[in-house]
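User: Can you recover a sequence for this backbone? Please restate the input before giving your answer.

Assistant: Of course. Working from this structure:
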């Protein structure tokens, strides 16, 4: 939740600054250089005043004005301070940008690393577009904080404080008159800051909703076009953007009103000061140079006051963005043991160790497993599933849609944890094993193959990053991919397009099998790997799968019962329970059995 107290806001700012601690010495040096630069900047009105007094000999020096140099000396000193300020400004500006960009890049990496390490439960509760917005718009606001807002805050703060001190030293009476308007400006800045923070967070939420619409529409563009819903999606996006626009415009009106009032107040105050200063000059109590110096310092003060709202607004926006980023960074990652290290903001890589357990010598068992998806706690999916796969066995899972077959696969991959019961691997509870190492021993060939938008070679090597070209080609050959890959002019460097749209369904499936080959898993998971394919593609894929299955423990989900006849055991799932178990020949003989009924319907057709 957003911080509402002053202490809470300062804590938020300290937390944001802590993200730059890897470059803290560069940051501190930049702050010091900027403060020295602003000291030179504050000398500018003083030297201009001296220059004017030196050029007006008719004006007698007032008591206390000891230094009365000539015009040339003042001009040289003035040019020297400008040169020093320019050099320091270049240094601190470049350093702030360097520190800011490095900090944001490191934070983007850390946030992305956290996102990919979050459990599947998290993704069942959040939309992809919303998460993409966190990496996009929120990081842009944090980039502005580190690269611009900090430097702007220091600059305007020093101009404001230094200008106030200088005008009091120049003429306390004029300064008192000038500062009468300050309480009004300060109150407005505080109120405005609170408003900006609320509106900024609301605007970012509306923008995230719009980004979600874009993400979902483009991912499902084929369905959008097939159902002729282009107008519906345009309206959905327009509604989201209208909400964003209304929020942004509300904030813009607030800012415009404040800026208009500040301009009126500041310039009105300057007119009042100039009038009173002219009267003091007539009375001989103020020189031309001092009035000029006072006026310039007044502009510094006015500029600092007018920028307070802008700086506060930028900081408040950044605080809102940082709170959402921290919420994601605080999300617990997948449970791991063994060699998994605590999150330190760096990439975490689990060592592939399972305490000496090797799957070929290990059985896999579900022991009275119950499970409900976190997003639907009222709907039981598995209701006491018990089954076992001996080393090297092929276990087929069949049954109607919604029976829990894919859930068994998800639990094996430890996407979720059972509500009760145990999953045993080699006699050890799966929760006691390192998750990353466990998955490193598995490979899945899903029904809907997701290919990344790179080359065929990159998609095959995704099963084992770092694989050599020879290993990729060998995997492709064994998966019956080599023939169709050779038909592309670019061969293995052919771009597959977003989600693999440039390949047919059968070609994508064979690439997925090649990906499994190159992984060389101990356990193979096939989820409807041959459904919705033509007979030619199915034959090639079945041949590839037979080679891939050899000597491996496998769980095979299939609606086409012809594909599971040769499995060592077939488990029929209904309403989250295993109701039948046996070989094809055993189950086909069972009178009134579900498997026999399904087989009769399919084979009769």
């Amino acid at each position: 939740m957003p911080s509402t107290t002053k202490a809470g806001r300062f804590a938020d700012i300290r937390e944001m600054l802590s993200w730059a601690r890897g470059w803290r010495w560069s940051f501190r040096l930049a702050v010091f250089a900027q403060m020295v630069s602003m000291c030179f900047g504050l000398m500018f009105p003083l030297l201009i005043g001296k220059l004017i007094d030196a050029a007006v000999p008719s004006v007698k020096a007032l008591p206390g004005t000891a230094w009365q140099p000539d015009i040339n000396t003042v001009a040289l000193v003035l040019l020297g301070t400008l040169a020093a300020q320019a050099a320091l400004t270049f240094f601190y500006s470049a350093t702030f940008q360097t520190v800011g960009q490095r900090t944001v890049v490191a934070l983007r990496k850390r946030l992305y690393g956290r996102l990919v390490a979050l459990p599947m439960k998290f993704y069942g509760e959040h939309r992809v577009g919303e998460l993409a917005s966190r990496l996009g718009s929120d990081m842009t606001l944090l980039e502005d904080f580190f690269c611009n807002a900090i430097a702007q805050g220091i600059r305007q703060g020093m101009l404001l404080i230094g200008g106030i001190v200088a005008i009091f030293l120049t003429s306390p009476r004029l300064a008192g008159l000038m500062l009468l308007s300050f309480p009004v400006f300060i109150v407005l800045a505080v109120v405005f800051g609170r408003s900006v923070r609320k509106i900024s967070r609301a605007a970012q939420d509306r923008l995230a909703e719009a980004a979600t619409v874009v993400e979902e529409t483009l991912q499902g563009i084929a369905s959008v076009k097939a159902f002729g819903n282009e107008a519906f999606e345009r309206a959905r996006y327009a509604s989201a953007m209208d909400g964003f626009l209304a929020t942004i415009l509300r904030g813009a009106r607030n800012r415009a009103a404040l800026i208009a009032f500040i301009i009126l107040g500041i310039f009105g105050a300057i007119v009042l000061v100039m009038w009173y200063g002219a009267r003091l000059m007539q009375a001989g109590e103020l020189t031309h140079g001092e009035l000029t110096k006072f006026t310039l310092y007044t502009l510094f003060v006015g500029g600092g006051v007018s920028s307070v709202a802008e700086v506060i607004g930028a900081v408040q926006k950044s605080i809102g963005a940082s709170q959402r980023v921290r919420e994601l960074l605080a999300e617990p990652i997948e449970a791991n043991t063994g060699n998994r290290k605590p999150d330190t903001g760096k990439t975490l890589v689990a060592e592939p160790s399972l305490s000496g357990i090797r799957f070929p010598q290990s059985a896999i068992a579900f022991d009275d497993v119950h499970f409900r998806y976190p997003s639907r706690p009222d709907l039981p999916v598995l209701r006491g599933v018990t089954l076992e796969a001996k080393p090297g066995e092929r276990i087929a899972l069949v049954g109607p849609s919604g029976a829990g077959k894919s859930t068994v696969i998800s639990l094996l991959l430890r996407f979720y944890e059972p509500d009760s019961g145990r999953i045993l691997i080699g006699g050890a509870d799966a929760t006691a094993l390192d998750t990353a190492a466990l998955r490193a021993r598995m490979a899945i060939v899903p029904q809907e193959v997701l290919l990344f938008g790179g080359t065929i070679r990159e998609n095959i090597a995704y099963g084992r990053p770092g694989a050599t070209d020879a290993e990729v080609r060998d995997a492709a050959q064994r998966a019956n991919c080599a023939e169709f890959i050779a038909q592309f002019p670019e061969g293995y460097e052919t771009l597959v397009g977003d989600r693999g749209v440039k390949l047919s369904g059968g070609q994508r499936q064979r690439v997925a099998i090649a990906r499994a080959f190159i992984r060389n898993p101990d356990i193979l998971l096939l989820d409807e790997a041959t459904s919705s394919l033509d007979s030619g593609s199915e034959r090639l894929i079945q041949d590839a799968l037979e080679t891939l299955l050899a000597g491996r423990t496998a769980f095979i989900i299939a609606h086409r019962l012809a594909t599971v006849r040769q499995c060592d055991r077939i488990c029929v799932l209904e309403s989250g329970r295993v109701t039948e178990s046996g070989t094809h020949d055993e189950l086909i003989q069972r009178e009134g059995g579900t498997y026999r009924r399904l087989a009769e319907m399919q084979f009769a057709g």
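That completes the design. The radius of gyration is 35 Å.
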